[in-house]
Design brief:
With 265 residues, the chain is an alpha+beta fold. It contains 10 helices and 4 strands. The protein is extended and about 85 Å long. The relative contact order is 0.12.
């Protein structure tokens, strides 16, 4: 992994846009070498909201669903090759799931269980833990990400080096494991979430109607206080009160006009 100086190319490095890697006219190597990869975020600035602490038994259930999805994808691919079915876009994507990808997913779910959802293994760790080749690990992660089994975020970090200005280099990715909705239909019924009772749907619909009616009855001032709050809510409440007063004056003026009285300003 290269180390990069922040000078004329600081904006490019921080935004993740590739910086110039060409040699100068003197044929000397460009001092920034290669860029921090596109889409990278600085380490230790976002992980607190990115990671998810799994509930008890959740990683094992997620892995079991991935294995059922692997079997389903293989079956669909055989039927497609035999001309027995036409695959949808989501089904075609599921057929790309491989045993290697599920093995990588198993390692990630294990780390989620052992590390309270904090998953940031290096490629070297995944290679060592699974016995798979580096290129196989790379392809497996791409498949898992495409289907929706993982969210992957690249990171960079600041390092000390000779020369002026702070410097940066790429560090390990962070991961969040998921169960995509597209695989739910291929898991046993006992592993699926129970549907909500009909009366619960009615209750939710009734509550939504009541909330909508309540919001519609609020004045501009009351709506600003309820929806925003704080200092900004106070400012918006003042503007709302002015709008309410203006509407009230217009309503009274309209009433006088209908009664045959001249409108007062």
């Amino acid at each position: 992994m290269g180390i990069y100086a922040v000078g004329d190319t600081a904006q490019s490095v921080l935004s993740g846009v590739p910086v110039n890697t060409k040699k100068s006219r003197s044929d000397a190597k460009h001092r920034t070498g290669a860029p921090v990869r596109a889409g990278s975020l600085e380490a230790n600035t976002f992980e607190e909201t990115f990671f998810h602490v799994p509930s008890k038994g959740e990683p094992d259930r997620m892995l079991a669903k991935a294995k059922y999805a692997l079997d389903a994808g293989r079956k669909m691919l055989r039927e497609h090759k035999a001309g027995l079915r036409t695959l949808t876009a989501s089904e075609r994507l599921l057929t790309t799931l491989t045993a290697s990808a599920v093995r990588i997913y198993e390692e990630l779910t294990k780390l989620a269980r052992l590390c309270a959802g904090k998953i940031y293994p290096s490629y070297d760790h995944l290679v060592e833990a699974t016995g798979l080749g580096r290129s196989t690990v790379r392809r497996a992660l791409a498949v898992l990400e495409a289907i929706g089994f993982i969210i992957r975020q690249r990171r960079f970090k600041r390092v000390e080096a000779e020369g002026p200005g702070p410097r940066f280099k790429q560090t390990s990715n962070v991961y969040r494991v998921l169960t995509p909705k597209s695989v739910a239909r291929y898991t046993p019924r006992w592993m699926r979430s129970a549907p909500l009772p009909v009366d619960d749907d009615w209750r939710r619909s009734d509550e939504a109607e009541q909330v909508s009616a309540m919001v519609a009855s609020l004045s501009c001032k009351e709506f600003a206080k309820m929806s925003v709050g704080g200092v900004l809510g106070g400012v918006l409440a003042q503007l709302g009160a002015a709008m309410d007063n203006n509407e009230e004056r217009e309503r009274k003026a309209s009433g006088r006009a209908k009664a045959g009285f001249p409108c007062a300003s």
